[in-house]
Write a structure and sequence with these properties.
This protein has 175 residues and is of the alpha+beta class. It has a single domain, classed as M1 Pyruvate Kinase, Domain 3, CATH 2.40.33.20. Helix content is 14%, strand content 31%. The protein has three helices and eleven strands, in the order βββββαβββαβββα. The strands form two sheets. A seven-stranded mixed beta barrel has the order 1-6-5-9-8-7-11. It has a three-stranded antiparallel β-sheet with strand order 4-3-10, with no helix packed on it. The longest helix has 11 residues.
């Protein structure tokens, strides 16, 4: 199963405006270079580090949300870092995957919060309940760009790429 990164978004400050960039760098143990969570900030920065490094959302889900809510909602408005197409994001939870050459682990689904509603002025909590994307942890960093492949890995390939195994393997959280 594979898909593609369509857009990359970041902001250096909690609640700050998101900016779209054509390329970036994923940093192991931190997230997207220049983003609030990689810089140690962000509204939810006090929560488990592995859950807040990187977020992904599906472009088709964002389009459906815009139609459903009647809002001029853009992928950047969702405050997720990577906008993808062609891969079932919920299936990444509890699994290893790559974005370009970066190794990631799907930590949990990323349901919306009322903070997002305050920032957008749009009622999104119910509409995004099962379309909020996923949170991922970055285990091996690499440059990424729009057009990068997002692909599931089996456990053997993930281990060859340096994924921790056994007791060191991350544990996803079901929400």
């Amino acid at each position: 199963m594979s898909g593609t990164v369509l857009e990359i978004w970041r902001t250096p400050a909690a609640a700050g405006p998101m900016e779209r960039v054509p390329a970036g760098r994923l940093i192991a143990g931190a997230g997207l270079e220049g983003d609030r969570y990689a810089l140690g900030g962000g509204t939810w920065a006090r929560y488990p580090d592995l859950e807040k490094q990187l977020t992904l959302i599906d472009a088709d889900d964002v389009a459906a949300l815009a139609v459903e809510t009647g809002a001029a909602l853009t992928p950047g408005d969702t405050r997720r870092n990577l906008v993808t197409r062609g891969i079932a994001l919920p299936e990444l939870v509890g699994r290893w995957f790559v974005v370009g050459d970066a190794l990631l682990f799907g930590m949990k689904r990323c349901p919306p919060c009322t903070h997002l509603e305050r920032l957008t002025g749009t009622r999104l909590v119910k509409a995004m309940a099962f379309r909020g994307g996923v949170n991922a942890a970055v285990f091996t960093g690499a440059p990424i760009a729009s057009g990068a492949e997002v692909r599931l890995l089996d456990e053997e390939e993930a281990a060859r790429r340096g994924a921790p195994t056994g007791a060191g393997r991350p544990v996803p959280r079901q929400v």
